[in-house]
Each structure stands twice: as structure tokens, then as C-alpha cells.
């Protein structure tokens, strides 16, 4: 009796497995199919309002704004790296001058110890030449101390001018690139609203897509402006520190030259 009952239950369980397992597998496959199709469709469809579409199919004004912002960004990064390298070299020259220049037996040996193409050697040669060649009908009306001081300050000013070159461009980029990007945004929104007015339809896809694409210009303008402003402030602070070392060297050199002249007298 129990054996027959056990056999009947086993047969019933096998029948249920054959019925429901394929049905469940079929239902799972049917549920996964729309998701796979939707995923493939999402991959196949490109964003018609992204940056790539703006570059390839945008209006001439949009492309012109992008090119202008790209040039401003490249110029900013170039100036930033070049001026950082210049301040690094000057700082190294200042350390070398403190270690070697004023410990030499003579000014000639001190000048030879400086970098041949460096700013400190240029200042030293200018000061020594002004001290040794103070003659002429016009320059004789200026006393020796004032004459040397003028030439040293002029040389220091030229070094400072080379360090300051390019900072005006960074300031210009930092102040104008957000407005250039905003101009591109306003132009894009104007074009989108004009197209909607012509079509006579104001659905969400007709409004949100073009307006979102136009806002890319403002984002790019800010991305160009922020590094330019940060780089400008950083370079200004570095230039102040480096020029302080340059002016200290010039002042010490002026004192040495005036001391040598007093000894010769």
C-alpha cells in the first residue's frame, strides 16, 4: 500500500516538474528579451544633443565659439607651464647666486659662476658695466651711485617684465571666457526657440534637448575660465617671491660695487 502511494507521489512530482520548469524558463526568457532589445536600442541611438553632435552638426556660430574657447584654453595652459618653468629657473639661479657669487675673490669670477643665459648674470654684467663705464658728456651730470642704481633697476625691470608677460592673457581669458560661453548658450536657446516657433510644437523633447545642448557652451566657458584664474593668481604670487630674491641680489651687488669704488678712491 505504502509502496504504491510512494510511486504515485513520485509520478505526480515528475509531471509537475515537466510542466512548470519549461514554463518558468520561457517566462524568464520572455522577460529578459525586452530588456535586451531596449539595451541594444539605447546603444545604437546616439545622443543628438551632446558635445559630439554640437561639434559635427552645430551651427557656424556654435562651432566658432567652441574653436575660440579651445584656443583660449590652449593659450592659457601654454603660458601657465612656460611661466612656471621660468620662475623655477630663477629660483634655482637665486640659490646658486647666494651660494657662490658673493664668495668669489672678484666680481669677474663671480659673474663667471652664474648661468651664462640667466637673469642674474645679465643683472650683474649690466651693473658692472655701468660702474666701469661712467663717462660721457651727459652721464657725467649724474653721480656714479645714481647711474649704477638706474642701470640695475632697469635690468631688474626687464627681468620682471619677462616674468609678467602672458599674465594679461590669463586675466583676459579668466574674465571673458564665461561670457563667451554664455553667448553660445544664448545663441543656442534662440535657435531652439525659433525652430519650435516655426514648427508650432512645444513638446518636452523639442524644448529640453536643444536647451540642454546650448548649456554645454556655458559649462565649457567655465572650464576654460577656472584654470586661467587659478593660474594667474598662482603665477602672481610666485613672481612676487622670485622677484624678491632678484631685488635682494641686485641690492647686494650694488652695495659691493659702491664698496669697491670707495676702496679704490
Helix/strand layout:
Elements: H1 2-44, H2 51-57, H3 60-100, H4 107-112, H5 119-132, H6 144-164, H7 167-199, H8 204-264
Helix pairs in contact: 3-7, 3-8, 5-6, 5-8, 6-8, 7-8
Task: Summarize this structure briefly.
The chain has 265 residues and is mainly α.
What does this structure look like?
By secondary structure, this protein is mainly α. It folds into two domains: about 1-45; about 50-265, no CATH class. Helices cover about 85% and strands about 0% of the residues. The protein has helices at about 1-45, 50-55, 60-100, 105-110, 120-130, 145-165, 165-200, 205-265. Helix 6 (about 145-165) packs antiparallel against helix 8 (about 205-265). The chain is rod-shaped. The termini are far apart. Residues about 15-30 and about 40-45 have low confidence and may be disordered.
How many strand segments? 0
Low-pLDDT residue spans: 16-31, 40-44
Number of domains: 2
State the share of residues found in helices, binned by percent: over 70%
List keywords for this structure.
about 85% helix, rod-shaped, 2 domains
